[in-house]
């Protein structure tokens, strides 16, 4: 897919949160039994509980482990993201194909509740060399995905996806470059 049509580039996920990377795993997310598509619009009531997550990479034969990070780069508002990136969920040691519920939940899921503007909620997946000890940061606000990946030698992401969300009854739209 050309970078001009890649939803991660169009949504400024590449650049704001991660550098460009070649996707080498498949990330599937389901909220309430419905599969989320990258860049979709979801309401807070639709994402109140953690999604079902499936990560696969057929080339590795089911022996890989993954780390999943969920952040809001638009907190508290897209016009003033002073808490960028707000950490909503962190799960490590997810066995390939087993789902996040089989991993180690380091930071519990906090449901998105944007108060101003349209927020992007981003899921980033890293392949781990082996199960490893990863510790919860002391805060959720101002988490930095790039620094986190460097600290734990996770390398480049292998998959990512995001959805847009605004408060129930909110209005307005996001304009992309």
Description:
- This protein has helices spanning 7-10, 13-16, 145-151, and strands at residues 26-31, 34-35, 40-41, 52-56, 65-72, 86-95, 104-107, 119-128, 159-165.
- The chain is mainly beta and 177 residues long.
- β6 (86-95) and β7 (104-107) form a beta hairpin.
- It is globular, with a radius of gyration of 15 Å.
- The mean pLDDT is 90.
- It contains three helices and nine strands.
- The relative contact order is 0.24.
Please describe the structure with a list of short key phrases separated by commas or semicolons.
3-stranded antiparallel β-sheet, 31% strand, 177 residues, PEBP-like_sf
Secondary structure layout:
Blueprint: H1 7-10, H2 13-16, E1 26-31, E2 34-35, E3 40-41, E4 52-56, E5 65-72, E6 86-95, E7 104-107, E8 119-128, H3 145-151, E9 159-165
Parallel strand pairs: 3-9
Antiparallel strand pairs: 1-2, 1-4, 5-6, 5-8, 6-7, 8-9
The biggest beta sheet reads: 6 strands, mixed
What is the tally of beta strands? 9
Mean pLDDT: 90
Helix content: under 10%
Shape: globular
Terminal CA distance reads 18 Å
Multimer state: single chain
- Rg estimate, integer Å: 15 Å
* Secondary structure tally, helices: 3
Q: Structural class per helix/strand content?
A: mainly beta
H/E element sequence:
HHEEEEEEEEHE
Pfam family, one: PBP
Family: Belongs to the phosphatidylethanolamine-binding protein family.
InterPro entries: PEBP, PEBP-like_sf, PEBP_euk, Phosphatidylethanolamine-bd_CS
């Amino acid at each position: 897919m050309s970078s001009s049509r890649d939803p991660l580039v169009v949504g400024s996920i590449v650049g704001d949160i991660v550098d460009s990377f070649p996707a080498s795993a498949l990330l599937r997310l389901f909220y309430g039994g419905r599969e989320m598509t990258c860049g979709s619009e979801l309401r807070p009531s639709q994402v109140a509980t953690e999604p079902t997550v499936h990560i696969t990479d057929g080339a590795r034969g089911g022996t890989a482990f993954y780390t999943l990070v969920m952040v809001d780069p638009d907190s508290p508002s897209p016009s003033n993201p002073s808490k960028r990136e707000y950490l909503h969920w962190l799960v490590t040691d997810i066995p390939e194909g087993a789902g996040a519920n089989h991993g180690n939940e380091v930071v519990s899921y906090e449901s998105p509740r944007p108060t101003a503007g349209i927020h992007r909620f981003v899921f980033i997946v890293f392949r781990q060399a082996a199960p490893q000890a990863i510790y919860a940061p002391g805060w959720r606000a101002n988490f930095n995905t790039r620094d986190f990946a460097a600290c734990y030698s996770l390398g480049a992401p292998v998959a990512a996806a995001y959805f847009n969300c605004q408060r129930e009854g909110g209005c307005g739209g996001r304009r992309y470059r």
